[in-house]
Write a structure and sequence with these properties.
Mean pLDDT: 93
InterPro entries: PCRF, Pep_chain_release_fac_I_sf
Protein name: PCRF domain-containing protein
Length: 87
């Protein structure tokens, strides 16, 4: 909907509003990208876990732990950003 607004005739006539719409669009795109990156990390970690299980390879455990901690940190960061922004 925000992108549709920017395509409307006269959108750029109100610079304050157009800047707010573009800023909001960027914020939402950034959140979607961060979420997609988180999902990708999660899927990669699941593959690593499956591989370690299939090969019965405990040497992969530090990589799994590291990846899991990174995901947890990303979730904490996203949660805090959401709480602070109110969205």
């Amino acid at each position: 909907k925000l992108e549709e607004q920017s395509a409307q005739p006269g959108f750029w006539d109100d610079m304050d509003n157009s800047q707010k719409v573009l800023q909001k669009t960027k914020q939402l795109k950034d959140k979607v990208e961060a979420f997609n990156n988180l999902v990708s990390k999660w899927e990669d970690t699941l593959v690593l876990i499956d591989l370690a299980n299939e090969e019965n390879d405990e040497s992969m455990l530090p990589d799994v732990v590291s990846a899991t901690e990174e995901i947890e940190a990303d979730i904490d960061k996203m949660t805090l950003e959401t709480l602070l922004s109110g969205h």
